[in-house]
From TrEMBL:
Keywords: Coiled coil, Repeat, WD repeat. CDD domains: Atg16_CCD, WD40. It holds the Pfam family ATG16. Residues 42-168 form the Autophagy-related protein domain. The keyword Repeat applies. GO terms for biological process: autophagosome assembly. It comes from the Eukaryota. WD repeats lie at residues 221-262, 263-304, 305-347, 356-388, 389-424, 448-476, 477-509. The keyword Coiled coil applies. This is Autophagy-related protein 16 domain-containing protein. Residues 51-184 form a coiled coil.
Length: 509
């Protein structure tokens, strides 16, 4: 039953009790009323006293009834207040039940998450134990490898000491032989010299004079806007050819220091130059991914060799035939071109980019210097790798052959200049200097025409000259104010030319 119904029933029950009590009181007073109806005289004072008593009782009954009515009203109000309180409690109980249900759901989710995290933790612990076991195993292997490495290093150092002793003996024999040859050849050289030109009687040899050590700057030429990355001399001539970031090829008279000719048409910065042995064609390697071939006499482009997919950084022409050209680009390829037909004959792909290339004197082998520091030899016809050697600890920046083709000079970003025997690829000399720092990945060094000296530029603007025989610096030329990028020696013995990042060319005598 609801609270209202309970209240109504309580009120009805109270009213019934009052009626019943009233009836009982009336029944109790009925003899008094009967007696009153008798003659008053006979009753006398007794009935009067009883009537007064009854009136008093009746008043008390009315007072009691009034008190009960007031009490009933208070109880009804308290019942209503209790009903409201019960409703509030029921609402609170409902909210608490909902909250309890939500909390139970969250607890279930957290329990499931805890189980997943526990499983993941157990998996991680098992993997950690496996990794720890592997680490222990690898630690043991590393310790064994270190011990073996130390033993190998000791053996290698012993072998190097023995090799150094043998090399010192060979150098002593070589120097003694050179001294004897010089002493015995003075008379022949004097007989062969005519107007300062020494004519060698060896088959295939070209005319050249002994190269003096440069000491002074003869001309300082503002050749290009921006850097000048490549310079070279025409064969048996004092004319200098230069290429720069301004996309132009310029030809200079080194006697007067004046500009004699300019070649246009290159669409990118010139990174390397070469010229055919008949001095008729100039080939430029460009940052526009192409090679450009000019006819020197007409000044017009004969060919534009396309095929590389990145900047072409090195180029050389065969020393046997002016028909074949080799190029290297930063697409990890070396290409051999036919100038008469104007297309590529062969492509060599290798994982390390090539910074410098040159042909051997017989035209059958390509020498390449790579970013990984290795010097590699390739067969021109098949493109097969013939041999390779770790020439430098950092990238190779330049390759230059001696006049007789037996020695190849390599320069590297490790600031070393190494001389290798082409037949065995063994190091026959290493040139270095405290202040010499190679300026870029395409810094070009050179060997003098008489194969006695090496010239190389430095990032501090100096040009260093080494004696190959003594492996010592014989001259340091300072005129440039920017990093020197390229050095080239005239085949006539002098002058020496150098170019820098500001586009300045200096000629030295």
């Amino acid at each position: 039953m609801s609270q209202d119904e309970i209240s109504r029933e309580a009120i009805k029950h109270a009213l019934k009790a009052l009626r019943k009590r009233h009836l009982l009181e009336e029944g109790a007073h009925s003899p008094a009323f009967t007696a009153v109806s008798r003659p008053l005289a006979s009753q006398g004072s007794e009935w009067k006293e009883k009537a007064e008593n009854l009136e008093v009782e009746l008043q008390q009954c009315y007072k009691a009834q009034a008190r009960l009515s007031e009490q009933l009203v208070v109880e009804v109000a308290e019942c209503r207040a209790s009903k409201a309180l019960v409703q509030e409690k029921e609402t609170a109980i409902t909210d608490l039940q909902n909250e309890l249900t939500q909390t139970r759901d969250e607890s279930s989710q957290l329990k499931a998450t805890l189980e997943e995290r526990t499983k993941a933790l157990e998996l991680v612990l098992s993997e950690n134990q496996e990794l720890k076991a592997q680490l222990d195993e690898m630690t043991v292997k590393a310790k064994n490898a270190d011990a073996e490495n130390k033993m190998l290093i000791d053996r290698w150092m012993l072998q190097k000491m023995q090799d150094a002793e043998r090399l010192n003996e060979a150098n002593a024999l070589y120097e003694d032989m050179i001294d004897r040859l010089k002493a015995s050849g003075l008379e022949n050289l004097a007989r062969q010299q005519v107007d300062g030109v020494v004519r060698q009687c060896e088959e295939g040899a070209e005319y050249f004079v002994e190269s003096p050590i440069p000491t002074a700057c003869k001309h300082k030429i503002p050749a290009h806007e921006g850097g000048c990355a490549s310079i070279l001399f025409q064969y048996n001539s004092g004319k200098l050819i230069s290429g720069g970031q301004d996309r132009s090829i310029k030809m200079w008279d080194t006697i007067t220091g004046s500009l004699s000719h300019t070649l246009y048409g290159c669409l990118g910065s010139v990174l390397d130059l070469t010229i055919t042995h008949d001095n008729k064609s100039v080939i430029a390697a460009s940052s526009s991914n192409n090679l450009y071939v000019w006819d020197v006499n007409s000044g017009r482009i004969r060919h534009t060799l396309t095929g590389h997919s990145d900047k072409v950084c090195a180029v050389d022409v065969s020393k046997v035939s002016s028909r074949h050209v080799v190029s290297a680009a930063y697409d990890r390829s070396i290409k051999v071109w036919d100038l008469q037909k104007g297309y590529c004959n062969n492509t060599i792909i290798f994982h390390s980019n090539c910074n410098a290339v040159c042909f051997s004197t017989d035209g059958q082998t390509i020498c390449s210097g790579h970013v990984d520091g290795n010097l590699r030899l390739w067969d021109v016809q098949t493109g097969k790798l013939l041999s390779e050697v770790a020439a430098h600890s950092l990238a190779v920046t330049s390759i230059s052959l001696s006049r007789n083709g037996n020695i190849v000079l390599t320069s590297g970003r490790d600031n070393l200049h190494n001389l290798f025997d082409m037949r065995s690829l063994e190091v026959c000399g290493t040139l270095r200097a405290n202040g010499n720092r190679v300026a870029s990945n395409w810094s070009r060094s050179c060997i003098s025409p008489d194969d006695n000296y090496v010239a190389a530029g430095s990032a501090d603007g100096s040009v260093y000259i080494w004696s190959i025989l003594k492996a010592d610096i014989v001259s340091t030329l300072r005129e440039h104010t920017a990093s020197v990028l390229c050095c080239s020696w005239s085949g006539l013995g002098k002058p020496l030319a150098s170019s820098d990042k500001n586009g300045i060319i200096c000629t030295w005598t």
